[in-house]
Amino acid sequence: MESQRLDKIIASTGRFSRREVKLLARQGRILLDGRAVRDTAEKADPESAEILVDGEPLCYRRCTWVMLHKPAGYLSATEDGRGPTVLDLLPAELRRQGLFPVGRLDKDTEGLLLLTNDGQLAHDLLSPRHHVDKVYYVRTAGRLTEADCAAFEAGMTLADGLRCLPAGLEILTAGEESEALVTLREGKFHQIKRMLGQLGKPVLYLKRLRMGNLTLDPALEKGKYRFLTDKEQDQLKNF
Q1: What does pLDDT average to over the chain?
Q2: Is domain 4-57 given the CATH code 3.10.290.10 in the classification?
Q3: CA distance linking residue 202 with residue 29, whole number of Å
Q4: C-beta separation of 104 from 125 below 8 A
Q5: Same fold, 4-57 and 134-211
Q6: What CATH number does domain 65-128+216-236 carry, 3.30.450.40, 3.30.565.10, 3.40.50.1820, 3.30.70.580?
Q7: In the prediction, which pLDDT does 47 show?
Q8: 171 or 130, which is more confident
Q9: Taking a C-beta distance cutoff of 8 angstroms, is the pair 110, 69 a contact?
Q10: Which residues are catalytically annotated?
Q11: Residue range 33-73, pLDDT digits in tens
């Protein structure tokens, strides 16, 4: 990888500002390949150099990818005056890395949400030409039927004229309240709620379980996050 200024490398982790990095260097608290560095303009390869700050190895990521188990009540935005956003669930060092949500989940929808600062790959994942499948668990008021499944499979036209691509509706339980899995290949505004509402089965609860071949980690509690593994990041490129 091309060499970069040391202050840029360290600041990119979000743990320190560039001004703080310069202070750390003057105090002899930064080691580059075993030697103290006083001039943060010095360059290094961030992927091969050993950089220690206060004796701790620097964790450098060219791009950061985070899996968040989004709880209800948070907006899928970087900032919004109407209420807390998903970034409020992250520590300050991650918020300083310029992360943003890949797509959106409604405020009251839970489940898998990816956050990143990799603009190009995020754009590719959201591009309509890729048709990345997204799977949701849904609970509705009213009994879901095979006719509802057929309506989803055929592709619905909503009351306002919006044409929805064919989608999957797999009934898990049917009764006064029903449970199902919904598979979408697009993500229009309130799409699942609007489709089921038009069928007379309003949504009571909605949770995204999967995006492409990436599944919500069952060990991840609501409101918690973890970094994607290298394998998972590679999977994103094959959506």
Answers
A1: 90
A2: yes
A3: 58
A4: no
A5: no
A6: 3.30.70.580
A7: 78
A8: 171
A9: yes
A10: 106
A11: 999 999 888 888 887 888 889 988 877 767 889 999 999 99
